[in-house]
Design brief:
Blueprint: E1 5-8, E2 11-12, H1 18-29, E3 35-42, E4 47-54, H2 56-73, E5 89-98, H3 102-120, E6 124-128, H4 139-142, H5 150-153, H6 170-175, E7 178-182, E8 187-193, H7 198-208, E9 213-214, E10 235-236, E11 243-250, E12 255-262, H8 270-283, E13 288-294, H9 299-312, H10 321-332, H11 342-345, H12 347-350, H13 364-372, H14 380-403, H15 412-447, H16 454-495, H17 501-526, H18 532-565
Parallel strand pairs: 5-7, 6-7
Antiparallel strand pairs: 1-4, 1-5, 2-4, 2-5, 3-4, 8-12, 8-13, 9-10, 11-12
Helix pairs in contact: 1-2, 2-3, 7-8, 9-10, 14-15, 14-16, 14-17, 15-16, 16-17, 16-18, 17-18
């Protein structure tokens, strides 16, 4: 299941006092699960841009705490800086990264704006996707007149904040107003060119950017811009929606670049932008030699690019994610100017737990040694899930070998689809390796709860029943997932590379072992449930899956053995 992650990039009206900035970021980091990615103070602007990510609930809470701390430490009566501003926390956008839609972020932003107003007394505007009116989608409209205009805007129809409107008072004078919004993730990217010409780089940028270039008389580059009846210059749109771009020369690298902001990655994915800039450059006799990502990028943008270039090569995409990422890096030349480190550039990788903290991060030897130790976990449930993952892995391997088999080029997509499904199945079962151990740990935690009073006994009994039910449902999920491996292994045994049919057979054996092993865990945990009707129901479900697994194993092994024997 895709992890739910959002990004928040608040701008605080303090860029000179490092102690104040640190107190604000400390408040943000006080929320568990938050990863602070960047703190960028500006002396001239007297403004600091902070970037942090995490699960939505944690990010919203961290944003609130940051706003609260800023309101305590920054007095807008005393603020001066070069950047437009209207509050101690000037703007606060929520940005979907993975597993969350823009619409969900917009609702979170509105709820947060209301909370900031209700709990802190700070007037708030909602902008971009969170705006209540079309005009206020534009941040400039919300911030018109800046801080100095607030006395006139507050308590004035059409100009007043969305939440916290009242006559301008001393509290509003101190905090100013905050704009809370939601927007899509913006990818800042530079495309490296084998030229030093800024003019040619600009021409390519104008070819592709959404705004395009001015229409000129006679279609000549040096002709006068053509204007409409209102005196506005008529533009010829570019080919990439949701993009802004210019050309420039970078002295440090000695090359020109097309510098682009992709503001709508759903309409123009990164790989589409790369291909289109490459095409436009080639039309002008220029090559794109590489790509430079500025800042961070969502995993989806890189993985989608890797899958796109694999498809162009008619190669299977059912391969490990790190290989897909490597394909994207090499295809777009992401490491031409500097080594591209996924752990430092891809947001989701930056907030992953450190390797080694989960069972699946261990080596094969380490997993076996941990299982063999005197610790009761990992036990049979985790091992069953791992056997299921190996079953899926073997079926996926046969699919990938078949997709790349000489003479089978017209079938690569068929086997790539099987491999994609196998990869997802393997990931589900790998997740269950650690989840089974986590379920056991929940039971142990419940056992250790106090039981000195009747109330404590009641709470402990309730926790034990919930933990035992969870520990019964997890291996049941393992059974279901492992049972799906038979479909993959059967398809590979019947239609896959004949040289790998024995691998499909081992996958069948591993799938059966996973199902039956997880079934034992369903029974032993169900025996501890006080709800005997529920226990009976879960055991019956397990028995039905076991029966199906045994029948499918027997039939498939008979078919596979016959094919091997010719």
């Amino acid at each position: 299941m895709e992890k739910r992650i959002i990004e928040c990039v608040p701008n605080f009206s303090e860029g000179r006092n490092k102690e104040i900035i640190k107190k604000i970021t400390d408040a943000i980091e006080s929320v568990k699960g938050i990863r602070l990615l960047d703190v960028d103070p500006g002396e001239a602007t007297n403004r600091t841009v902070v970037t942090f990510v995490g699960e939505p609930e944690a990010v919203v809470e961290a944003a609130f705490r940051g706003v609260r701390r800023a309101s305590e430490l920054i007095d807008m009566n005393l603020h001066h800086g070069a950047h437009p501003r209207m509050g101690a926390t000037d703007v606060l956008p929520l940005i979907p990264v993975s597993g969350v839609t823009l619409e969900e972020c917009a609702q979170m932003a509105r709820d947060l704006a209301r909370r900031i107003s209700d709990d802190l007394g700070i007037p708030t505007y909602c902008y971009e996707a969170a705006a209540f009116t079309p005009e206020r989608r534009n941040l400039a409209v919300c911030r018109q007149g800046e801080y100095e205009a607030l006395p006139e805007k507050m308590n004035h129809p059409g100009l007043a904040p969305d939440f916290g409107d009242r006559p301008y008072d001393e509290a509003a004078a101190r905090t100013g107003a905050t704009a809370v919004g939601a927007r899509d993730f913006l990818i800042a990217v530079n495309f490296n060119l084998n030229t030093t010409s800024t003019r040619r780089a600009n021409a390519i940028a104008f070819d592709v950017r959404e705004k395009g270039r001015p229409k000129r008389e006679g279609g000549k580059p040096n002709g006068k811009p053509v204007k409409d009846e209102n005196g506005n210059v008529i533009m010829i749109p570019g080919t990439l929606p949701g993009t802004k771009a210019i050309g420039w020369y970078i002295d440090e690298y000695g090359i020109a670049q097309v510098s682009m902001n992709i503001t709508d990655i759903s309409r123009t994915p990164l790989h589409v932008a790369f291909d289109e800039v490459t095409r436009a450059a080639a039309a002008r006799g220029i090559r794109v030699t590489g790509t430079e990502i500025v800042g961070l990028v969502p995993k989806k943008a890189i993985v989608d690019a890797g899958r796109y270039f694999l498809h162009k090569q008619q190669r299977s995409t059912g391969i490990p994610e790190h290989e897909i990422v490597r394909m994207a890096v090499k295809s777009m030349g992401l490491d031409e100017l500097a080594h591209f480190k996924p752990k430092e550039k891809i947001i989701e990788y930056m907030i992953e737990p450190e390797a080694g903290k989960n069972l699946v991060d261990l080596t094969v030897k380490g997993f076996a040694e941990e299982t063999a130790s005197e610790s009761p976990a990992p036990g049979g449930g985790s091992v069953s899930a791992y056997m299921g993952a190996l079953a899926a892995a073997l079926g996926t391997m046969v699919a990938n070998l078949s997709a790349h088999k000489a003479g089978w080029d017209d079938r690569w997509h068929e086997f790539s689809d099987y491999a994609d499904g196998g990869q997802m199945l393997m990931e589900r079962l790998l997740d269950l390796v650690d989840e089974d151990t986590a379920a056991f740990n929940r039971i142990m935690a419940a056992i250790q709860m106090p039981k000195g009073t009747d109330h404590e006994k009641m709470l402990r009994d309730k926790a034990m029943e919930e933990a035992t039910l969870y520990a019964t449902l997890v291996p049941l999920r393992t059974m279901r997932a492992a049972n799906e491996c038979f479909d993959l292994c059967e398809a590979m045994a019947e239609t896959g590379n004949p040289a790998s049919i024995s691998d499909a057979g081992v996958g069948v054996l591993a799938a059966r072992a996973a199902v039956l092993g997880a079934g034992l865990n369903v029974r032993i945990n169900a025996a501890g449930l006080k709800d005997r009707e529920k226990a009976r129901e879960l055991v019956e479900r397990a028995e039905a899956i076991e029966t199906e697994a045994k029948e499918r194993e027997a039939a498939l092994l008979q078919t596979i053995t016959a094919k091997i024997q010719g």
